[in-house]
Structure formats: structure tokens, C-alpha cells
Amino acid sequence: MKKIILSMMTMAIFSVVSYGRTSAVAPASAATPDKDSVKAALAAVNRTYGESFSKGDSSLFLDCYATDGCIMAANTPLLSGRKGLLLFYRSAYKTGIRDIAFTTVELYGLTDEYATEQGVYELFGAEHQSLGKGKYLVLWKKTAAGWKMYRDMFNGDAPMK
User: Fold this and answer.
1) pLDDT value for 32
2) Which residues of 31-55 are buried (b: 16+ CB within 10 A; e: fewer)?
3) CA distance 100 to 67
4) Crossing angle of helices 35-54/81-94, nearest 10°?
5) Which of 3, 65, 103, 139 could pair covalently with 69 via S-S, beta carbons 3.0-4.6 A apart?
6) How are beta strands 114-124 and 130-143 bridged, if at all?
7) Residue-wise pLDDT tens digits, 86-99
8) What is the pTM of this model?
9) From CA 128, how far away is CA 8, in angstroms rounded?
């Protein structure tokens, strides 16, 4: 009887361990999207981002972000949700930013749901004078409305004072 119970316990433990191993592996997702087409889609959103400043249109800016998106700018608290994103836009607009040029350096971790973009940017004023340059990482999220910024982190190249 002890052998039967021991044998059943061993099988039960083996079944649980085996199930845990197979269920912990994520299922294969749909085919990875074409890198060039994703780059083109992100570039279009980046252009809209810059246009939001040249047109003074916060709705264009907000449309670049996922509804649960957030900005992680240097030396500021986390700005999340529509309210936080709008606060960032208004503050940046007040500094005189009227255009932003983004250049994608590389895309990493591209899946059918997320992509991470590494790039550089340059800020411009009303007379298209350079206001500064910097670098960024954006985690993009694929939504029903297309690719949107989900986590946006950046900092300027100017030396700290």
C-alpha cells in the first residue's frame, strides 16, 4: 500500500512540475512585423509629435501616446495618463519649443505588440533655431489605432550645471 501511495505521489508531483514547465513557456506569437514598415509607422507618429508643437495642437500630441502612456523625462516625476501628458505638452510649449526632429538609431525587441526605439532628437524654436539636442528610448505599443508611445524616456545632451 505504501508503494502505491508513494508511486501516486511521485506521479502527481511529476505532473505538476511538467505542467509548470510547459505552461511557463509563452506561446509563439504571430509573425514578427516587418522592421521597415514599423520604422515608417513610428516615423509618421514622430512627425505628428513635432507638428503638434508647430501647430500648437495638444490633441495631435496626445494622439501620439497610448491612453495609458507615460513620459519619464529627466529630473521630473513620472507623467502618466492624459492629464500628465497634457501637463508635459503645455510646459514644453511654454518653453518655446515649436518643432522636434526625431532620428531613429535602432529598433529593438520588435514583436507584434511592442517595439523599443532608440534615437536622437533636436528641438527647434519659432524661427527654427536649435534649442537643444538629446537622445531617447521609447517603448511603443501596438494598439487598435496603430503604434503609440507607451513609455517615453529622454534627456538632453547639454552638460549638467
Assistant:
1) 83
2) eebeeeebbebbeebbeebbebbee
3) 22
4) 60
5) 65
6) antiparallel
7) 999 999 999 999 99
8) 0.79
9) 76
